[in-house]
Specification:
The chain is built from seven helices and nine strands. It has about 210 residues and is α+β, with helices and mostly antiparallel strands. The chain has one domain: Peptide Methionine Sulfoxide Reductase, Chain A.
């Protein structure tokens, strides 16, 4: 969530009689790309990582989703200082149930892939979308998914496919935020217009 919106959000919550306290930030930790036997991992960015985490954890075949930072050069990024990185998620999934291609299709249909300035109310580079591909097969699947999305939308998809890089785990208070802070999260998601914009973008497509 952008800091401007976060401040407004905190004020509204406080006015409603709720307390919005967040734990102090700690440096992010690098997360190994290896997955348990039989599972695989993938990294995606789609704006606020709370929302992307929430969406992917509803998909059959996904075992776990964690929020973090990726795509930048900075070591040990934090929420307050992750310049160059995108808010991203690492998805651990069972490829015998859900394919990488299906994950990409799912991402594209839960974001605004036409927006290169951020996502929904969160603006700026850190909130732009991206598909982090680890190998030639993932690059091929991602590009095929984008081509299909462009046909469905009749417009150019600006979500880029880029080489997968280190993924840094975000601070603990960001993990499972949508579960631990249901009221605050629901208010933020609605106020940000995420679901309304996704519906508007994709309503005219064949999917």
């Amino acid at each position: 969530m952008s800091r401007t919106l976060a401040s407004l959000f905190a004020a509204l919550i406080a006015a409603a009689g709720f307390s919005l306290s967040m734990q102090p930030s700690n440096a992010a930790e690098p997360v190994p790309a290896q997955a348990p036997d039989g599972l695989a991992t993938a990294i995606f960015a789609g704006g606020c990582f709370w929302c992307v985490e929430s969406d992917f954890e509803k998909l059959a075949g996904v075992h776990e989703v964690v929020s973090g930072y990726s795509g930048g050069l900075k070591q040990s990024p934090t929420y307050e200082d992750h310049e160059g990185h995108l808010e991203a998620v690492q998805v651990t999934y069972d490829p015998s149930i859900v394919s990488y291609r299906r994950l990409v299709d799912y991402l594209l249909r839960h974001i605004d892939p036409l927006d290169d300035g951020g996502q929904f109310c969160d603006r700026g580079h850190a909130y732009t979308s991206a598909i982090f591909a680890a190998n030639a097969e993932e690059w091929s699947d991602a590009n095929a998914a984008i081509a299909d999305a462009e046909k469905a939308l009749g417009k150019k998809v600006v979500t880029p496919v880029i080489d997968r890089s280190a993924f840094w785990l975000a601070e603990g208070y960001h993990q499972d935020y949508y579960k631990k802070n249901k009221l605050r999260y629901s208010y933020y998601r609605a106020a940000c217009g995420r679901d309304a914009r996704v519906k508007k973008v994709w309503s005219s497509s064949a999917h």
